[in-house]
Design brief:
The chain is α+β, with helices and mostly antiparallel strands. It has four domains: 96 residues, Rossmann fold, CATH 3.40.50.620; 64 residues, no CATH class; 43 residues, no CATH class; 170 residues, Isoleucyl-tRNA Synthetase, domain 2, CATH 3.90.740. The protein is 35% helix and 18% strand. The chain is globular, with a radius of gyration of 26 Å.
C-alpha cells in the first residue's frame, strides 16, 4: 500500500495500555472506540491518518505482574501483548500496526535515553528563548563569568572568569547542574520500601501503593529532575494556538502555575534564621498575622521549642504518610501544630507573628496569611486552639522561591520585576486604614 503524500496529515494517538494483566478491561475500549471513530472520519475526509498503537510495557506494572505470577517479565509481557493484540483485532480498530511501539524494546528506549542526553547537555537561554548547548555556556563562563548570562537557573553565585577558571572540576559541575535542563537535585518523593521504588501520585491510594497495598512515605531523595519551568512562558503562549476548550486550557494554565511576585524574608525571633515566603501580593504584607511551614522544611527542627517538640515530631510522622495530592485535596479538615516560634514582621501592625507546621505541599515550602484569609484563619484557630496560619491563594506553588527579598536584596539577575511590584503596592500600605474589625 502506498501513501498519497499530497493529502493533509492527521495524527490520532491513544494512551498505550499496560500489558500487566490477563487482558483488556472495559476501560480500554471505552476510550479507544471514540478515537477510532474520529480516525475513520478523518480518513474518509481525505486525510492521511497516522493512528498507531503500542504497549507501555516497561515499568512497575509489568514488573509487579511478573512477581505475582512467578515468571520473568519478558515472558509475561510477551504473553500479555499477544493477548491484547488478539482482543484489539477482534474489536476491529483501524490501527497502523506497522508502527507498533513497545516501551520495553531497546529500539524504543534507546531514543528516550538519547533525549535525556540532549537535555543533560543543554541549558535554556532566555535571550534566544530555546535550549542551547552547555559547551557554549562554559565558553561564556571562561571568558566573562556568569554576571552577563541570562539563563533559567537556580544558581545564586556570581563569579568572574578568573574564579570560574580556578574552580576544580567538581565545583564546575556543581554549578553547571544548576543550569542543565536535566539535573540532579534532592526532592520529596513517594517512597515505597516494600516495592523499592518511587511512586507517582496516581499510584498511591490512601497512603498505600495501588499495587500490593504497601505503605508509602514521603522521603527526600536524590533524583533526576527536569527544569521544565524554563518553558512556562512558551507553554502558556502555545495554549493560544491549540484547538481546545477554554476549560481544558484553564486547567493547563493552572497546572503550569506561573505567577509573578516577590520573595519576603521574616526574621525568626531569638534565632539567626530567616523564613522566606513567595507572595504575589506584597501590598498585604502589613497584615500578615501568622505563618506556616511544610513539615519537611529544614527550619522546623531548628525553631521548634522544647515545649512543642514532641507534638511537631508526631505531626511530621503523620504528614509523611500522605502524598502531596492528599495534603492539598483535604482542605475541609484543617490541621496543624504550633512550633512555639515567632517571626518579626517589620512592616505589619502585628510585629510578632507565630509559626506552625501544616500538611501543605512537600518540601521547603512556607506560606503566610494575608488579611483576606481572616475567615479561614479563624478555622485554624478553632482547629488547634492557637494562632496559626493559612493561605488563600491558588498559585503559590508555582515559582517556589525567587531570590529577591524586599528586606534585603542580593546581587541577582532574576525577578527584578519584584521591585516594580513592591513600589506600586507601597501606596496601598499608606492608604490602608490603621485598624480593621474582624467580621463575625
Amino acid at each position: 500500500m502506498t501513501e498519497d503524500t499530497s493529502r493533509p496529515k492527521f495524527y490520532v494517538l491513544d494512551m498505550f495500555p499496560y500489558p500487566s494483566g490477563a487482558g483488556l478491561h472495559v476501560g480500554h475500549p471505552l476510550g479507544y472506540i471514540a478515537s477510532d471513530i474520529y480516525a475513520r472520519y478523518k480518513r474518509l475526509s481525505g486525510y492521511n491518518v497516522l493512528h498507531p498503537m503500542g504497549y507501555d510495557s516497561f515499568g512497575l506494572p509489568a514488573e509487579q505482574y511478573a512477581i505475582q505470577t512467578g515468571q520473568h517479565p519478558a515472558i509475561t509481557t510477551e504473553q500479555n501483548i499477544a493477548r491484547y493484540r488478539e482482543q484489539l483485532d477482534k474489536l476491529g480498530f483501524c490501527y497502523d500496526w506497522s508502527r507498533e511501539v513497545r516501551t520495553s524494546s531497546p529500539n524504543y528506549y534507546k531514543w528516550t535515553q538519547w533525549i535525556f542526553k540532549q537535555l543533560f547537555d543543554c541549558y535554556y537561554d532566555n535571550n534566544t528563548k530555546k535550549a542551547e548547548r552547555i559547551s557554549g555556556l562554559v565558553q561564556q563562563f571562561e571568558a566573562n563569568g556568569n554576571a552577563g548570562v541570562s539563563a533559567c537557573t537556580d544558581c545564586e553565585t556570581i563569579f568572574s572568569a578568573a574564579e570560574w577558571n580556578a574552580f576544580n572540576p567538581q565545583q564546575k559541575e556543581a554549578i553547571l547542574q544548576e543550569y542543565r535542563l536535566a539535573f540532579l537535585a534532592d526532592s520529596w518523593v513517594n517512597w515505597c520500601p516494600a516495592l523499592g521504588t518511587v511512586l507517582a501520585n496516581d499510584e498511591v491510594v490512601n497512603g498505600v501503593s495501588e499495587r500490593g497495598g504497601h505503605p508509602v512515605e514521603q522521603k527526600l531523595m536524590r533524583q533526576w529532575s527536569m527544569r521544565i519551568k524554563a518553558y512556562a512562558d512558551r507553554l502558556l503562549t502555545g495554549l493560544d494556538t491549540v484547538d481546545w476548550t477554554d476549560s481544558i486550557k484553564d486547567m493547563q494554565r493552572n497546572w503550569i502555575g506561573r505567577s509573578e511576585g516577590a520573595a519576603v524574608r521574616f526574621k525568626v525571633q531569638s534565632h539567626d534564621e530567616e523564613i522566606e515566603v513567595f507572595t504575589t501580593r506584597p501590598d498585604t504584607i502589613y497584615g500578615v498575622s501568622f505563618m506556616v511551614l511544610a513539615p519537611e522544611h529544614p527550619l522546623v527542627d531548628q525553631i521548634t521549642t522544647d515545649e512543642f517538640k514532641q507534638g511537631v515530631e508526631d505531626y511530621k510522622k503523620s504528614a509523611a504518610l500522605k502524598t502531596e495530592r492528599d495534603r492539598q485535596s483535604n482542605v475541609k479538615n484543617i490541621t496543624g501544630q504550633f512550633t512555639g516560634a515567632s517571626q518579626e514582621n517589620s512592616l505589619g501592625r502585628t510585629r510578632c507573628i507565630p509559626s506552625m507546621v501544616h500538611k501543605c505541599k512537600s518540601g521547603s515550602v512556607t506560606m503566610s496569611s494575608p488579611p483576606m484569609a481572616q475567615v479561614l484563619s479563624w478555622r485554624y484557630h478553632a482547629a488547634i486552639n492557637a494562632t496559626t496560619i493559612l493561605r488563600s491563594i491558588s498559585t503559590w506553588r508555582s515559582s517556589i522561591f525567587s531570590p529577591m527579598s524586599i528586606f534585603r536584596l542580593r546581587p541577582t539577575r532574576k525577578k527584578m520585576q519584584s521591585l516594580r511590584i513592591l513600589n506600586s503596592s507601597m501606596d496601598c500600605l499608606q492608604r490602608w486604614p490603621s485598624k480593621r474589625r474582624l467580621k463575625k
